[in-house]
Specification:
The chain has about 160 residues and is α/β, with parallel strands linked by helices. It has helices spanning about 1-15, 30-35, 55-65, 100-110, 110-120, 135-140, 150-155, and strands spanning about 25, 45-50, 70-75, 125-130. Helix 3 links the parallel strand 2 and strand 3.
Length: about 160
């Protein structure tokens, strides 16, 4: 019910010219379906946590079918989350230390972060990587001069 009320309020903002489009965040597949079934104006973007350890493939596919951009936050994993300080993530290894991803990065002469960001693009989405380090910011954008092969992409599955 609350999503429907908020959705109608966001549509009113578009109608009044106070915003051009609607975005949603942290919605699962059922919630996105509910929004589409009960709204006049579909969201332009869905922003969810997504990275190689949390693909969200079904949700990404659904968004692609319905022309909703999928934007990943924490696209390089969420190793800085406070609850992870007590031990390794469920995968047993931090994303940027994953040995298989390191091999892919080495083949392309790129960092693991660059390979992961490229994976996001090739999955049909976009990613919002955060950094305050100028060299990392520059590195994060330098992902358009290579492409991951089908074999590279399988490493992420």
């Amino acid at each position: 019910y609350q999503r429907r009320v908020r959705g109608k309020a966001m549509e009113a903002l578009v109608d009044e010219g106070l915003c051009k489009s609607i975005g949603i965040s942290n919605f699962n597949l059922m919630q996105v379906r509910e929004i589409l079934e009960n709204s006049r104006i579909k969201p332009a973007v869905l922003q969810n946590e997504s990275h190689p350890y949390l693909h969200e493939k079904d949700l990404r596919d659904y968004c692609r079918i319905h022309n909703i951009a999928f934007q990943a936050y924490s696209p390089l994993g969420s190793g800085d989350r406070p609850w992870l300080k007590d031990g390794p993530p469920w995968s047993g290894v931090e994303l940027l230390q994953d040995e298989e991803l390191k091999k892919v990065a080495t083949r392309h002469s790129k960092s693991v972060a660059q390979v992961v960001l490229r994976w996001h693009l090739q999955m049909g989405g976009c990613a919002a990587a955060k950094s305050v380090t100028p060299s990392r910011i520059a590195e994060n954008i330098d992902i358009f001069d290579f492409e991951l092969s089908a074999d590279d992409m399988k490493v992420f599955d």
